[in-house]
Amino acid sequence: MRAMIALGLFAALAAGMASAQVAEPERTVMVFFDWGKFTVERDYAGALDVEAATFPKAGRASVAIEGHSDRSGPAGANLRSSRHRAEVVRDYLIAKGVPADRIVVRAWGEARPLIATADGVREPQNRRVDVRILGQGKD
């Protein structure tokens, strides 16, 4: 699989404001995992490397890392898997130079799927970690 980078845009100006600082887009890198696996594959490592390399230029940036799971196992095990995968991605980014104190890790387990499935279904797109680069504006 190729790394998927989704872009979200913030509103540039609030209604009625005389002037406002324009924020750069929030970026999200999605890292997918094979069933039962907890390693960052090469396809996704490249996208994470780019984010880590550009992070120092991002001003006040912080990183939200959110782990997700499919519904193929018990809810508790899925929550643990989603946390473990998120922590693997966090550790990868720290090893590439992103400051640990700028990273927040959350685990959602099977609660926020990309693809809705029945309980017990293995869905590759739901076994993911979303890496969101936040706060792109300069001080």
Overview of the structural elements:
With 139 residues, this protein is of the alpha+beta class. The protein has a single domain (26-133), classed as OmpA-like domain (60s Ribosomal Protein L30, Chain: A, 2-Layer Sandwich). It has two helices and five strands; from the N terminus they run ββαβαββ. The termini are far apart.
Lay out the secondary structure.
Elements: E1 4-8, E2 26-32, H1 42-54, E3 62-67, H2 75-95, E4 103-107, E5 128-134
Parallel strand pairs: 3-4
Antiparallel strand pairs: 1-2, 2-5, 3-5
Query: Which strand order does the major sheet show?
Result: 1-2-5-3-4
Morphology: elongated
Classify the beta-strand content into a percent band: 15-25%
Count of discrete alpha- or pi-helical segments spanning 4 or more residues: 2
- For CATH, the homologous superfamily is named as OmpA-like domain
Structural class: alpha+beta
| Order of helix and strand elements from N to C terminus | EEHEHEE
Radius of gyration: 16 Å
| Distance separating the two termini | 37 Å
Provide the CATH topology: 60s Ribosomal Protein L30, Chain: A
On the 0 to 100 scale, the average pLDDT is 82
Second rung of CATH, namely the architecture: 2-Layer Sandwich
